[in-house]
C-alpha cells in the first residue's frame, strides 16, 4: 500500500524514500519503524521535538516547506528488503511537482536515488542522494547523518544551498 504524498503550497523540497516498510504500512505512515532515524533526524535538523503522531509528523513536514513521498507507487517486495524490489510502478513525481513549488528532491538512500533517476526524474529539479536513515544503514551514525543531511535541511544548510 502506497501512501499519498504529504505536501502543501509552500513545499519546495521533496524527500523521497523507496517503498513503505512493513512497520510503516502497519502504522499507516512514512518511516514507521521505531529504529528508523528519519523523524529524530528531521527534528534535530529543524530544531523541533521528535514527532510521535501522524498529525505531528505531517505538521513537521509542512511547517518547514517540505514534501514527503516515495519513488514507488506499487511494487513486489519481500519484507523490507529494497534489494528485492521488482515490478515497479513509479510514483507520479512530475505530477506532484506541478501541484507544489518543488525545486529539489532529496533521496533517502541510494536505492531511492536510483529509482528516482530511473523512473521519475523531473527535468529542472535538483536530485540529491543522501545516506539512508534506515536502521540497516548502521555504518552511518546519527551525527554522520546529521552532517550529510544538514547540508540541505535546517540551520546547517551549506552556503549556496537554499535553506528551508
Describe what this molecule looks like in 3D.
Helix content is 31%, strand content 18%. The protein has 164 residues and is an alpha/beta fold. It has helices at residues 22-27, 38-46, 54-63, 93-99, 110-120, 142-149; strands spanning 13-17, 66-70, 72-76, 86-90, 104-108, 126-130. 37% of the residues are buried. It has a single domain, classed as Uracil-DNA glycosylase-like domain (Uracil-DNA Glycosylase, subunit E, 3-Layer(aba) Sandwich). Keywords: Glycosidase, Hydrolase. It is an enzyme of class 3 (hydrolase). Its EC number is 3.2.2.15. Residues 4-153 form the Uracil-DNA glycosylase-like domain.
Q: In the CATH scheme, what's the topology name?
A: Uracil-DNA Glycosylase, subunit E
Please report the distance between the alpha carbons of the first and last residues: 30 Å
Helix/strand/pairing class, anyone?
A: alpha/beta
Task: Sum up the overall morphology in one term.
Answer: globular
Major sheet: 4 strands, parallel
The CATH superfamily is identified as Uracil-DNA glycosylase-like domain
DSSP E strands, number: 6
Radius of gyration: 14 Å
- The whole-number mean of residue pLDDT values reads 87
CATH architect. name:
3-Layer(aba) Sandwich
Q: What is the share of helical residues?
A: 25-40%
CATH class: Alpha Beta
**Strand share of the residues?**
15-25%
SS summary, helix count: 6
**How many individual domains?**
1
Return residue spans where pLDDT drops below 50 for at least 5 consecutive residues: 156-164
Q: What is the H/E string?
A: EHHHEEEHEHEH
